[in-house]
Write a structure and sequence with these properties.
By secondary structure, the chain is an all-alpha fold. The longest helix is centred in the last third of the chain and has 19 residues, at 61-79. The protein contains five helices and no strands. It has one domain (19-98).
């Protein structure tokens, strides 16, 4: 059996080891480079963020507060979604109206 490279499981899916990496991937799914620097308002470099994500460097409190603020905003946006009639319910109502 072939050994998987560092950071990957045998089925080649990425293993996210740090909570910082998980949080950033939840906030910005295609998180990389400039998007991450913009997420922190340009206060840090890409290298610093990469070190936080890998766990090589501890994340400062202001960055934790920023991630917390962004996750709360996103959670609030998710809870404001209201369920509506699905496509099948709308289609059924139209079908019934035609009969």
């Amino acid at each position: 059996m072939e050994q998987a490279s560092y950071g990957y499981q045998g089925d080649r899916t990425k293993v996210y080891e740090t909570t910082v990496d998980q949080a950033l991937r939840w906030l910005v799914p295609d998180a990389h480079g400039r998007k991450l620097v913009a997420l922190f308002d340009g206060r840090v470099s890409r290298t610093t963020i990469a070190n936080w994500r890998a766990g090589r460097r501890s994340i400062p409190q202001w960055a934790i507060d920023r991630i917390d603020q962004l996750t709360r905003e996103r959670s609030r946006a998710v809870t404001t979604i209201k369920p509506g009639p699905g496509k099948s319910a709308i289609g059924f109502a139209r079908w019934r109206a035609r009969r």
